[in-house]
């Protein structure tokens, strides 16, 4: 499909809204839960019912694991830690969208997708806009280079998301929603082990036993939003779009998320971006528009999956695909 249908564009914009407000929900959760424990908890509450009631999809296992580790485990470990270390909510919603240029570039490397000059210009503009924001943040925060750590962690979260996008596309699930639900089964254990190592066992327990406090109730509401709307609805729709369209066509839509994230953070959290940050955001959104409106020169051929990946036929198909 060379051009996204009106229905798929509406679905993409729906994800933009869900994920824009998702950053507000994350901030509410991080006001109470330790970051790694919160990341583990958001997936753990989904994992048990999924394993009991949802059939595992027909999917290529190695690419499903790339999807789950990139999109689920690493993205949120980096993002939640960055926000805990002082990354503003609205700015996080913008910088995380480095996933879009990363996804396009990975699509060129692994999926044989070809970028048009307009798409290249859009990526350069988006990266330039984010660089402008990073420099402004370091200059006016009073922390110098130390202010770049939360931004760097958020960029790493965007890179992890990009690898997850590629994994979700190569996985070729027979049901994108079921694959998204089963995503929740992979991250809880490594994230909880990370929480035990960094935050200690008492931090998570204390946050659970104090849910009745003034910060606990909003955090519980934030957790509910992140699970039901941010993950199940948002990621389910997103994965379905990635399965039907080239990565270079879908990924730039995520750059619209900061419009919602920055606006919601200003209205609900009182975060006021600087003029330079706003200019950088406009440049980033301009790069997004270039990526969405440009017509890709070609799309890769990915053979349909016929069963779960193993050392036999499916593994061979994957090697052929990546060798092209």
Overview of the structural elements:
By secondary structure, the protein is mainly alpha-helical. It is globular. The protein is built from 15 helices and no strands. It has one domain (24-294).
Q: SSE order in H/E notation?
A: HHHHHHHHHHHHHHH
Rounded Rg: 19 Å
Q: Care to count the β-strands?
A: 0
Low-confidence stretches: 303-324
Percent helix, as a range, is over 70%
In terms of DSSP E residues, the strand content is under 5%
Structural class: mainly alpha
Largest β-sheet summary: none
Number of domains: 1
Distance between the termini: 21 Å
Quaternary form: single chain
Shape: globular
Could you tell me the mean pLDDT?
83
Q: Helical element count? A: 15
Question: Which tags fit this structure?
Answer:
single chain, about 325 residues, mainly alpha, 15 helices, AA-Vitamin_Transporters, transmembrane helix
Task: Indicate the topology.
Elements: H1 6-30, H2 35-53, H3 61-84, H4 89-95, H5 99-110, H6 117-140, H7 148-171, H8 176-183, H9 188-198, H10 201-209, H11 216-244, H12 247-250, H13 257-269, H14 275-293, H15 313-323
Helix pairs in contact: 1-4, 1-11, 1-13, 2-3, 2-9, 2-11, 3-7, 4-13, 5-7, 6-14, 8-11
How would you concisely characterize the structure shown here?
With 324 residues, this protein is mainly α. It is built from 15 helices and no strands. It has one domain.
């Amino acid at each position: 499909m060379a051009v996204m249908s009106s229905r798929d564009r509406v679905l993409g914009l729906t994800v933009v809204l869900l994920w824009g407000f998702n950053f507000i929900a994350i901030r509410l959760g991080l006001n109470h839960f330790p970051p790694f424990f919160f990341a583990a908890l958001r997936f753990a509450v989904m994992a048990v019912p999924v394993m009991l009631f949802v059939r595992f999809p027909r999917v290529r296992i190695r690419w499903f694991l790339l999807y789950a580790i990139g999109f689920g485990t690493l993205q949120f470990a980096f993002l939640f830690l960055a926000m805990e270390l002082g990354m503003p909510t609205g700015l996080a919603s913008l910088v995380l969208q480095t996933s879009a240029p990363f996804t396009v570039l990975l699509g060129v490397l692994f999926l044989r997708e070809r970028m048009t000059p307009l798409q290249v210009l859009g990526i350069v503009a988006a990266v330039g806009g984010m660089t402008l924001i990073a420099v402004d943040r370091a200059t006016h925060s009073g922390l110098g280079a130390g202010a770049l750590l939360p931004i760097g962690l958020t960029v790493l979260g965007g890179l992890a998301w990009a690898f997850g996008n590629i994994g979700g596309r190569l996985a070729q699930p027979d049901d994108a929603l079921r694959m998204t639900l089963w995503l929740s089964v992979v991250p809880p254990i490594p994230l909880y082990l990370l929480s035990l190592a960094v935050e200690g066992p008492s931090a998570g327990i204390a946050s659970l036993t104090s849910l009745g406090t003034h910060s606990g109730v909003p955090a519980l509401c934030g957790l509910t939003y992140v699970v039901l709307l941010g993950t199940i609805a948002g990621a389910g729709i997103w994965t379905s779009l990635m399965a039907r369209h080239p990565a270079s066509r879908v990924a730039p839509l995520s750059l619209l998320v900061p419009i919602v994230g920055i606006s919601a953070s200003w209205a609900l959290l009182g975060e006021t971006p600087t003029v330079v940050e706003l200019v950088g955001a406009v440049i980033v959104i301009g790069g997004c528009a270039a990526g969405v409106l440009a017509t890709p020169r070609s799309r890769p051929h990915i053979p349909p999956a016929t069963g779960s990946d193993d050392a036999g036929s499916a593994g061979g198909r994957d090697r052929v695909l990546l060798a092209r």
